[in-house]
Amino acid sequence: MDDQVRLCRERATALGHDVVEVFSDYAISASNLRTRPGMLALMEAARARDFDVVIAEALDRISRDQEDVAAIFKRLNHADVKLITLTEGEINELHVGLKGTMNALFLKDLAEKTRRGQRGRVEVGRIPGGNSYGYRMIRRIAEDGNLIRGEREIHPDEAAVVRQIFADYASGQPPRAIAASLNRQGIPSPRGGLWNASTINGSRQRKNGILNNELYLGRITYNRQRFVKDPDSGKRQSRVNPEHLWVTKEVPALQIIDEATWQAAQTLRGRYSSQAGNKRQTKKRLLSGLVRCAGCGGAMTIVNRERYSCSARRERGTCNCRVSISVAELEECILTALKDILFGREDLIAEFAASFRAEVDRLRRSRKDNSVILQKELEKVTRSIERALAFILEGDGDPGSIRHKLKELEARKRDLERKRCADHTMTA
Q: What's the rounded Cα separation, in Å, for the pair 11 and 82?
């Protein structure tokens, strides 16, 4: 990073420019604009005409996403700001089209090579990803001098904890009780902190969590899920792959749990998952994420959809505070207190109103930019659907070869239309 800044400073000096600001997104992927505070700050400064030229090492340092490269170039061009890179020189529309495509293909090719390497590890009985609780990594050098990755061996102390968890669960103890027991014994969790019920329980669909990890049975299961980035939020999301795409490899040397104990635990999990229980609270409330327990200082979360309760007590068993409070009652108390504080204080009311207007303006600009992006992507997806349908109707090939892609495009179109509708509703 420092080398890039130094080279860009030297180029600026050679071109006779003064450096007024350095924007960086250190250790952040350049594949999505919305997760890069440095680039977003640069765009704001460009809009304010704080500089005349942007200098970067290469266009892929600006972004590797085709849509983002075009959007950044368009906005810099509108602000009369030149974009210069050490590799390509002054950027124009031709660079944006060609280099943007090349950078996107680079990311796709890199992902394919990574998956190919992981699949190769699985075939020889090695772990393709991170380490699981109950095992430790083996690092050794091959004859050619390269580091051999993916080898594991059983960690005796952690394996004993895994066996204890399965035995307790099979005897009827729920994950919350097991987590509380482990915390009372002072046994560190997989990440070195306190145990949570979710660490033990996991997700049956995604096969994560202690009770779902088939490696304890001596079996590597690869390609259960894939990760994609939401083009709007930039956040990574996991999606379960069809079961016929999973790759399994038996590794008896890594077995910790015997078949009978495993089956007993899975039978119980199937029984519990079929019973109706409390649905997860997904709706954000006024004070979500802000309420703390007076007993331990931990977060209080909503239970039964209407009361705040200490999550550390429920999930970890590390807090003895049994006090809970109604969501409506707490919100009423907070709003009443705010009204009493602001009443009669013209200076505070003016400051609040100014801050509120500024935030509303910021959100309105953000929604406007997002609406343009959504509309462009929707048009692109619609054109792709039309081309796919024309391909099928004209009989140019096997329609089965693009059926899956067409379903993906239709799903993406519905998602974009839903988001655009929601965005227009918020703006109105």
A: 14
